C-alpha cells in the first residue's frame, strides 16, 4: 500500500526525498535509481487486443519556417454564457488546425477521475458516487499500478466520492465555455510518472512511481520526446515546471524550467509563448494545492487553473492558442467506467488505458458547450501537436491516436471569453 502523503507544501519531488529519509519502500515493480548510462528497459510490446483507433496515420510534409499569420477579430463573450447544445455527431474540423494554431499548451493538474469532478455535467457520461467529496481529502489515496484494479476505481472510502457542481464550480464554468471530453483516458493504469512519460514521449519505461528520486542523473532515460521532434524542425518549446527533468538528452536545456511557472505568465503577457509547452502544476512550489493533488485543496487548484487560463486568454497570442487542461492520473478516485484494455505491461497486467480523467480543450476555436464522446488519451495531445506542426509521430501510440479535432471548429470566428472569476477559498 502506498504511503500517505503528509499534509504540507512539499512538492512531489520533495516528498519523494521525504519518503527516502523515512525509509518507506514502494512495490518491487518500481524502478529505482536508473543511471544515465544504463540501457533502457525493454519497452513492452503492443497488446494483441483490438485498438479503437485506426491502424495507420497519414503524416503531412515538414512545415515551413514562416511564423506570420493573420486572425479574424475576436468575439468577446462572458464565461457564464449559455453553452450550445452538445453535438450528436462528430463535427468537421476544417479548415486545418495548422492554419490557425501556433501555440499548444499541455496544462496538467493532478489525480482526479471524470466522475470525481464532472458527474452530472450536462450531456456527459458521468455517474455520481453518491457521497460529496470534501475540498481536501484526509489522505492521499493509494494509486500505484496494483491499486488500479480495484472495482469502482476508488482505493479508500474517502475517495468513493464526487464533487458537487458548487465544489468544482470554476472547472464547470471552464468546461461549459469550452469543450469537455468524457472519454479521455489516462494512458497508464498507474500513478503520475509513467503517465508523464506518455505525455512527453508516448512510451514509459516504468509503471510505478520512481523511488527515491525522479530526476537525472539518478533517474534518467534516453528516450525521444516531442521536444526532440520540435528541435528537429527548429520549433520552440518550453517545459514550465520540469516534467522532463528525467530525460537525458534535455539535461541542461534552458527550456526545462524546474519548479518554475513565472516564465509562463511572463511569456503569455508578452505574446512569446513557444510553439509547444508543458505546465505541470504539481511540480511547482506548493504543488499539491496548485494541482489539487490530495491532500491539497481543490479550491486552490481552481484558483490556479483560472489564473493560467486567464493569462492565455489575455495574451496577444490568444487567437492562435490551443490549451489542453488534463489531470495526470485517476488518483484512487471513483469512476464508473472500466477502461478498455488495448495494451498490456510486461507482466501481462493491463497497461493502457488507465481510468478516465477530465480533459478540457481551451481555445478561441473550441466548441462552446460541446462534450466530446470520442476516445482520447494523453498521446492524443501529442498527435494534435504533430498534426498542427507536421511532425512525425514518436511511435505507434501517438501515430494512431485521435488528434482531438472533434473538440474544435476552425471555421468559427475566434472567441475570447471574459476572464474567469478567481474563487475565494477558506
Molecular structure report:
The chain is α/β, with parallel strands linked by helices. The chain has a single domain, classed as Alkaline Phosphatase, subunit A. It contains 10 helices and 14 strands. It has helices spanning 12-22, 114-118, 169-177, 192-201, 226-232, 262-270, 287-291, 298-314, 378-389, 396-399; strands at residues 75-77, 103-109, 179-181, 184-185, 237-241, 256-258, 276-280, 321-327, 343-344, 350-352, 359-362, 370-372, 376-377, 415-417. An 8-stranded mixed β-sheet has the order 6-5-7-2-8-11-3-12, with helices on both faces. A two-stranded parallel ribbon has the order 1-14. The protein has a two-stranded parallel sheet with strand order 4-13. Helix 4 packs parallel to helix 9 and helix 6 (262-270) packs parallel to helix 8. Mean pLDDT is 83; it is low at 1-9 and 16-89.
Amino acid at each position: 500500500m502506498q504511503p500517505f502523503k503528509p499534509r504540507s507544501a512539499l512538492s512531489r519531488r520533495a516528498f519523494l526525498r521525504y519518503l527516502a529519509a523515512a525509509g518507506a519502500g514502494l512495490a518491487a515493480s518500481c524502478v529505482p535509481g536508473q543511471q544515465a548510462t544504463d540501457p533502457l528497459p525493454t519497452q513492452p510490446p503492443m497488446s494483441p487486443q483490438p485498438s479503437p483507433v485506426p491502424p495507420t496515420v497519414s503524416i503531412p510534409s515538414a512545415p515551413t519556417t514562416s511564423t506570420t499569420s493573420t486572425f479574424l477579430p475576436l468575439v468577446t463573450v462572458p464565461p457564464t454564457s449559455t453553452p450550445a447544445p452538445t453535438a450528436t455527431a462528430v463535427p468537421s474540423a476544417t479548415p486545418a488546425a495548422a492554419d490557425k494554431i501556433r501555440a499548444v499548451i499541455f496544462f496538467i493538474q493532478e489525480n482526479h477521475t471524470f466522475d470525481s469532478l464532472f458527474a452530472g455535467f450536462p450531456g456527459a457520461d458521468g455517474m455520481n458516487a453518491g457521497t460529496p467529496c470534501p475540498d481536501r481529502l484526509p489522505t492521499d489515496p493509494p494509486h500505484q499500478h496494483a491499486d488500479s484494479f480495484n472495482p469502482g476505481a476508488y482505493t479508500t472510502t474517502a475517495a468513493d466520492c464526487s464533487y458537487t457542481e458548487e465544489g468544482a464550480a470554476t472547472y464547470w464554468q471552464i468546461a461549459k465555455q469550452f469543450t469537455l471530453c468524457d472519454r479521455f483516458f489516462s494512458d497508464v493504469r498507474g500513478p503520475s510518472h509513467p503517465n508523464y512519460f506518455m505525455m512527453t514521449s508516448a512510451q514509459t519505461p516504468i509503471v510505478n512511481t520512481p523511488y527515491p528520486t525522479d530526476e537525472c542523473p539518478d533517474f534518467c532515460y534516453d528516450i525521444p520526446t516531442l521536444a526532440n521532434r520540435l528541435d528537429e524542425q527548429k520549433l520552440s518549446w518550453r517545459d514550465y515546471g520540469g516534467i522532463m527533468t528525467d530525460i537525458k538528452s534535455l539535461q541542461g536545456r534552458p527550456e526545462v524550467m524546474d519548479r518554475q511557472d513565472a516564465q509562463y505568465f511572463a511569456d503569455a503577457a508578452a505574446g512569446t509563448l513557444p510553439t509547444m509547452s508543458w505546465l505541470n502544476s504539481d511540480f511547482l512550489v506548493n504543488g499539491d494545492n496548485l494541482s489539487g493533488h490530495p491532500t491539497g485543496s481543490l479550491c486552490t487548484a481552481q484558483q490556479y487553473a483560472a489564473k493560467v487560463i486567464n493569462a492565455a486568454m489575455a495574451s496577444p497570442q490568444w487567437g492562435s492558442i490551443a490549451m489542453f487542461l488534463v489531470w495526470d492520473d485517476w488518483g484512487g478516485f471513483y469512476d464508473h467506467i472500466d477502461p478498455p484494455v488495448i495494451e498490456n505491461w510486461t507482466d501481462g497486467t493491463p497497461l493502457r488505458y488507465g481510468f478516465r480523467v477530465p480533459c478540457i480543450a481551451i481555445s478561441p476555436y473550441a466548441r462552446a458547450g460541446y462534450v466530446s464522446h470520442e476516445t482520447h488519451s494523453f498521446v492524443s495531445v501529442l498527435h494534435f501537436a504533430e498534426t498542427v506542426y507536421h511532425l512525425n509521430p514518436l511511435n505507434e501510440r501517438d501515430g494512431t491516436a485521435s488528434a482531438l479535432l472533434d473538440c474544435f471548429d476552425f471555421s468559427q470566428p475566434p472567441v475570447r471569453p471574459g476572464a474567469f472569476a478567481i474563487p475565494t477559498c477558506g
